[in-house]
Amino acid sequence: MSDNPQRSDDEKAGGIQVITRAAKILNVLGEQPNGMSLGEIAHAVDLPRSTVQRIVAALDSVQMIRIQGAGGVRLGPALLRLLSGVHTDVVDIARPNLQALSDATGETVSLARASGTQLAIVHYVVAEGELRVVPRLGLNLPLYSTSGGRALLALESDEDARTLVGEAYAAMTENTVKTLPELLAHLKEVRETGVSYDRGETLEGISTMAVAIDTVLGRFCISLLVPCTRFQKHEARYRAEILKCKEAMTREIGKITARD
């Protein structure tokens, strides 16, 4: 134990500062897969080039980043290996919660993420009933029309959402959102209520309800997929159960983050 409490506090503060700066550098590199120069990184994180150089060298020594000549600083193999396991980790966490949601509602449940301008299903639980929705794993649907896609878009600013999906929307059904103002009105409602809806806008005869989870493992959405014939009748119960599922998922991922 240190004989100088002030020095110990200063060392802790310095350590936290270095971690914070390293995290900023990794975040910036994550947005530039083609790599950046030290000068570009320094400008992006608003730090002296010499400070960035020291942190980059330390991250390179543990393969968190890779340095390949001038202008070639990019994420390294150790970090990419960690990222490759993210979706598997989330599915492992989500599986019992998704099953509980399906059991409570009697409906099909999916877990999905954004993939460009599309919504990609990464896991689902199919309901036991005779009249049920059966999705395809890897099925890609537009972010602008799906409840899950709009739940994820609502995490962005209106301008970022517009940049991501544009202003021209192909009609999936006669109910599909047609204009940017109409889409932004949906996103405003999602931000206010926490729940997103697709009432036959993407697939004929199917209504969906979704919530987004914004976690250290990434952004995902949980959706209920329901035949339109019974969606409205049980909508309030579906809403209560999907919010309960979101809370449970967030709590589980929070525990893992705290333990790490």
Automatic annotation (TrEMBL):
Name by which UniProt lists this protein: IclR family transcriptional regulator
Database matches in PANTHER family: HELIX-TURN-HELIX TRANSCRIPTIONAL REGULATOR, ICLR FAMILY, HTH-TYPE TRANSCRIPTIONAL REGULATOR RV1719
Pfam families: HTH_IclR, IclR_C
SMART domains per record: HTH_ICLR (SM00346)
Gene Ontology BP terms: negative regulation of DNA-templated transcription
Protein's organism: Winslowiella arboricola
GO molecular function, one term: DNA-binding transcription factor activity
Domain HTH iclR-type: from-to ranges: 16-77
Annotated ranges, domain IclR-ED: 71-259
Keywords: DNA-binding, Transcription, Transcription regulation
